[in-house]
Amino acid sequence: MPSRNGAETAERDSDKPGASRLSRRRDRRKAEIVRTATELLSSYGYQGMSLEGVAERTDIAKATLYHYFASKDDLVSAALESLTEEVLTRLDARRRTVSDASATEQLRALVDEQILILTETAPEVATVFSWPKSWPELFDEPMKDMRRRHDAVFRTVAEEGLRRGEFNCSNINVALQCLHGILNQSSVWIRPGVVADHAALRRDVVDCALRLFV
Known about the structure:
Layout: H1 4-15, H2 19-48, H3 51-58, H4 62-65, H5 72-96, H6 103-121, H7 124-128, H8 140-164, H9 172-189, H10 198-210
């Protein structure tokens, strides 16, 4: 724990002219490093991603990376958390656009948004989380937690639909597992060169997914 004098010094430093500018610059550089690490994870998986590769792509010395992240695993953790938060933020924003609608329409919006994320707006999400055998054990629990947080978004709406009598599924856990399976496969079904009309196929996938509940 920092000493009282140390805390006071940090507070004085933050009040100095230019301190916020330096902080913003550091935050931008840190975000750039995380984005680069995510790109490498998406392309090569955990084993293929290296601090040397991140340093080269961001055009900074490898030693400089240690000013931001203590290790490769620290950086990978930040990249995974950043992706998770991005997905959760997008899902929350999409759900809020239909917050007054039925549970069916809310679930439809969430499923549609998730497929958009995986196939168009952030396809790296699908590829990063599709390397199950390459992750060290230390990521087992964090990734389980990320999946639980993601599942909770859909589960909340599914449970509300059951309470309202809109949904009729005998086992919500099975239905949600099947839903996640459909979502995961959507990045395989809807990709460049496979079908011309992505929007139409996405609607079909959403309709099929909703039949698990309605």
